[in-house]
Predict the structure.
Amino acid sequence: EVQLVQSGAEVKKPGATVKISCKFSGYTFTDSYIHWVQQAPGKGLVWMGVVDPEDGKTIYAESFQGRVTITADTSTDIAYMDLSSLRSEDRAVYYCAHSSSPGYYFYYMDVWGKGTTVTVSS
Amino acid sequence: EIVLTQSPGTLSLSPGERATLSCRASQSVSSTYLAWYQQKPGQAPRLLIYGASSRATGVPDRFSGSGSGTDFTLTISRLEPEDFAVYYCQQYGSSLTFGGGTKVEIK
């Protein structure tokens, strides 16, 4: 059974960078894709991007292009999401989520982490 | 980008009633690559339906999905107390986008 365990809540100042981790277990990391999804308070889900841990290839949503970096460490089975130039609108819960369909970066997400809350405040 | 519009925004129903949720796409979703998720307050989303009509593992059969092209529906045949939540559709046929959600609340 796939499990995703995310790092704890973060408080950052405007302009800073936040790095969130997502520890994967229960399946083959390199046969999976890890997505990141943003949810602002009281709002809906926004897809940010995806990484293929097998080769490190990433695809980012246009709205986050240039500010988000998603990586995967196959030695530890941990995926990371960096979001830079933080602003107040980035205050949200960030989820990592798993999909597994070889060759399909865009797929449904069958397992989700519990989420990491990021607060941006001066 | 395919935009998904969910309606209604809020559905007020009583336990035992039937819920019908709509998800309309701005252009055709290829190969019925449409999923539905349930989210309860303070929890992560949970996959309910994929491929427009296939139930995910462990999802009760009172949940069903249908549709193709630009119009999709999630039906909950008889609402149980634990079904009151927010529901999101997601398309994955062309990049990946979510709808704005439908809240199913107790009447």
Notes: Chain B touches chain A through 24 residues (CB under 8 Å). The first strand of chain B starts at residue 4 and ends at 7. Chain B has a mean pLDDT of 96. The radius of gyration of chain B is 13 Å.
